[in-house]
Every structure is written in structure tokens, then in C-alpha cells.
Amino acid sequence: MNQTIATMLGHRSIRQFTPQPISAEQRDMIVQAGLAASSSSLLQVVSVIRVTDNKKRSLLAEYAGGQAYVASAAEFLVFCVDYQRHMAINSNVQADFTELTLIGAVDAGIMAQNCLLAAESLGLGGVYIGGLRNNAQQVDELLNLPQGTAVLFGMCLGYPDQDPDVKPRLPPHVIVHENQYQALNMADIDVYDESMQHYYAHRSSNQKQATWSQQTTSKLSGESRPHMLPYLNSKGLTKR
């Protein structure tokens, strides 16, 4: 195993950070690593907003559901799907196809993961903040996003002030199928649920008793940010 793979396998979400700032050199390397990520047809339909204003940080923490580390992390980045550049280059650009929003979301995820992996390789930690979509319109207005541009998620970065265990994942044979989709073996889920219960029972904070199956089915049994479609439509995206 090389150091890159070891860094990947050691990923933990970090939500507590020391006051130590990230240097400009480190930040530049993280951004360059993100820019080096794959981009569909080299469209490069992602914009990243670095939020340094303390008042805006506090508001974003509130909009994200009271996640205080949004305000306290050394850096906070907001990843956006962005077709404004392309529309400015040529007014014939039609950015309202659903496929183009999907491309933007995929590209943003790839770019962000490059940024996070680069940060972790430098001894930093971070966590994704999908909670920005709880109040996407307010975030949009706070960051003055133009038409054709929409908020996707945020990312906290900084020096870790905690050392959580690596959270168990579903085993590869459940995720990776060969030649065709394979039927789920519920015995595999039972084993995984047991490993997650053990993880939650023994971690130092936020201990839980629910299994992975219970948590995920509960989350997927109700509405999931139904305001996102009209929000994206209002930005000229995902209309057809």
C-alpha cells in the first residue's frame, strides 16, 4: 500500500479544528489539486467561493442547520455548479438541461474530493457540508450567485482537534457488481449493521444505538429538500 491509498483509507470527517490557520501555500496547493480533477468534456462548470467574512460564515453555519464548525474552521469553501461563464462567452448556451446539472454536480464532487484528499495529505482534515442546501436560496443570495450558478455543498478545512475512528463502510462485494446487477444478500447487511452498532457504541462522542439500515431507511422515507427543484429552476437549471 502506498501513502496515497493509506491517506484515502484513513479518511475521517473532522468537525473540530484548532485555531491554526492554513497557509497560503497550502491553500494554493489544495486548489491546484482540485483544478487538476477530471472534468466532463473539459467544460469546467464548477466555481468555488472561499468565504473569509466572519459574518457570512456565521450565517452559513446557521443556514446549514446550526453546524458551528462552518464558522470556526480555518477555511470554508462553497462549491457551485456554474454555467454563467459559458453563457457570458456565448448567449446561445442552453444550460437548462438536466444532464448539464448532473455534469456540474459530478464535476464538483470530483473536484472537491481532490481538494479534500490534498488537504488530508498535508495533515489537515475536513468535512462536507451538504446542509447548505437546507436553505439554498438564502445561501445563494448571501454569496450573490448569478443566473446559471447554484450552490451544491460546502467544505470545512483545518487542522484537526479530534481523532475519530474510521467509520465502517459497506463491504466491496455489496457495492461492486460484475457484468450485471447482483441481488442483495440481506445477511451482508446484517453483518454491516452489527459493525456499525459496535462503532457507534464505542466512539467517544455522539453514541447511537440505531443500525445503518434503520438510519438510512428513516432518512429515505420522507421528503428530501423538495425546495431544491424550484431553486434550480429559478437559476435557469434542470428545466428539461
From TrEMBL:
Q: Which Gene Ontology MF annotations are present? A: oxidoreductase activity
Which Pfam families does the entry mention?
Answer: Nitroreductase
| Region described as Disordered: spans on this chain | 204-240
Query: Is Flavoprotein one of the keywords UniProt gives this record?
Result: yes
InterPro entries for this protein: Flavin_OxRdtase_Frp, Nitroreductase, Nitroreductase-like
Which positions make up the signal peptide? none
- Compositional bias, Polar residues, is annotated for 204-221
Looking up Gene3D superfamilies in the UniProt record yields: NADH Oxidase
List residues of the Nitroreductase domain. 10-159
Keywords assigned by UniProt? Flavoprotein, FMN, NADP, Oxidoreductase
Family listed = Belongs to the flavin oxidoreductase frp family.
Question: NCBIfam families per the record?
Answer: PRK10765.1
Instruction: From the Swiss-Prot or TrEMBL record, give the protein name.
Output: Oxygen-insensitive NADPH nitroreductase
The scientific name of the source species is Vibrio qingdaonensis
Tell me the name of the encoding gene. nfsA
